[in-house]
Write a structure and sequence with these properties.
By secondary structure, this protein is mostly beta strands. The protein contains 5 helices and 21 strands. The strands form 4 sheets. Strands 1, 15, 16, 17, 18, 19, 20 and 21 form an 8-stranded antiparallel beta sheet that branches. Strands 2, 3, 4, 5 and 6 form a 5-stranded antiparallel beta sheet that branches. Bound molecules: 3,6-anhydro-alpha-L-galactopyranose (AAL).
């Protein structure tokens, strides 16, 4: 390096030092992000988008402190028979679990047909097209949430031409002013005919033990032609919030596979009219609806589909949802036990367990679903550190089971040959 260059470098270095020494800086204020648990208050230093997000988008700085983060643990249920898992008996899409008179109650889609589902082309008056075709709504009770006793059919399929004559499926339970309401997908055609198209109807009872009386009319209509929910109103999920019935549901915006989103319909009376929220869809991802009152708002388990799948979301107003946590191994079709689902307390306490399902339990030839229990810590009143762990390691075999398709293997070997 020649003399002139040495002189220029040292002058520059001198100027930088001089400028830095003139800058007002409190020796106590950190100029880089500090060691240790991130400070509760956002540090007054330049931050990256990621660290700004840590403070602006989340209620906690790390998962263990995030009340709306949890992992999920699963347990087999006892007491429900599946006819040797031959595909003729299926139970799926459980409601929220409720507790009445010291007993837990759950309702679900039950299919009991002579054969497993045969697809839209194979479906007949007695052969199901899908796992939830030719189904009814059944009830089971439990003292501990692990051993269940099936109590029988709550809502059978009504005669033609009533909504649900083909199948009644995917129930949602509401308790309101000393009565109980079971909302469900009410099929007016075989699922798969044009798509999985249906509206929602409801049955009413004075007791969770029934008997249930069908209103035999649609209470949550399909949207008008050209609107996002014109064909599909699935997964009716009622909560009581701000003095009204907030019924969340899922619809499919078309496309193959369909883009799925969740909407909200609000009513002052359980039998309607239900007004769809003008901001619908209110959740841009997910599949089955599963929500619970949390603090002054509503939280949602958003699984399976969409840009924001595998997230737990929160809306302080029950309408405008943001991602509160990212998680994995979420329950499919979760029906959580929500002690305050209908109390409208304005101080939702959260959930710690519920039921979900595993579909296509042992292969498509005997396609059927089974119910299972999940446990989590999404509760302001629980503290279960094992539920806040993010490092979930599976045996290698679990990963290898999700191997390359035949086409992918051929693509790779073709590419190798072309080299
Ligand atoms: C479920 C739910 C609805 C669909 C089908 C049965 O996961 O989304 O109920 O119609 O799948």
């Amino acid at each position: 390096m020649n003399a002139t260059r040495i002189c220029r470098v040292s002058t520059t270095a001198l100027l930088i030092w001089l400028a830095a020494s003139l800058l007002p800086c409190d020796a106590d204020e950190p100029t880089t992000f500090p060691y240790g648990n991130p400070p509760e208050k956002k540090p007054d230093i330049p931050l990256s988008a990621a660290m700004n997000r840590l403070y602006d988008d989340y209620d906690a700085r790390w998962t263990e402190a995030n009340e709306l983060f949890s992992n999920f643990k699963y347990t087999r249920l006892e007491g429900l028979d599946y006819n040797g898992h031959d595909g003729t008996v299926s139970r799926r899409d459980p409601t929220k679990v409720i507790r009445v008179g010291g007993k837990y109650y759950v309702w679900y889609t039950k299919r009991h047909t002579s054969t497993p589902p045969k697809g839209a082309k194979g479906g007949t008056e007695t052969i199901p097209s899908t796992d939830w075709d030719l189904a009814e709504i059944w009830c089971a009770t439990s003292n501990d949430g692990l051993v269940w006793q099936e109590q029988g059919v709550a809502v059978p399929r009504p005669p033609k031409p009533h909504a649900g004559w083909r199948s009644v499926a995917t129930p949602g339970i509401l308790a309101w002013q000393d009565k109980y309401y079971l909302y469900y997908q009410a099929y007016l055609e075989m699922s798969g005919t044009r798509g999985d198209f249906c509206p929602v109807s409801v049955s009413v009872s004075d007791s969770p033990d029934g008997p249930w009386t069908a209103v035999n009319r649609v209470v949550v209509e399909n949207g008008s032609p050209g609107t996002w929910d014109q064909f599909v109103i699935h997964d009716p999920y009622p909560l009581v919030y701000k003095g009204k019935i907030y019924l969340y549901y899922k619809s499919e915006l078309g496309g193959r596979p369909p883009i799925r989103a969740q909407g909200l319909a609000i009513a002052a009376d359980p039998l309607g009219p239900f007004e769809k929220h003008p901001l619908n869809p209110v959740i841009n991802s997910g599949h089955e609806t599963s929500l619970f009152p949390f603090k002054g708002g509503i939280a949602a388990l958003v699984s399976r589909h969409g840009l924001e799948h595998n997230t737990i979301q929160y809306a302080p107003d029950g309408v405008n949802f943001d991602i509160a946590a990212i998680t994995s191994l979420m329950p499919v079709a979760p029906g959580p036990y929500v002690p305050d689902a209908f109390s409208d307390s304005g101080d939702g306490r959260g959930i710690t367990w519920g039921l979900s399902h595993f579909r296509n339990f042992n292969g498509w030839a005997t396609n059927h679903s089974i119910l299972a229990r999940f446990d989590c810590d999404l509760s302001l009143d629980a503290n279960r550190p094992e539920m806040k762990n993010t490092d979930i390691f599976h045996q290698a075999e679990v990963y290898f089971q999700f191997g390359l398709s035949k086409q992918e293997r051929e693509r790779i070997s073709d590419a190798t040959e072309q080299r």
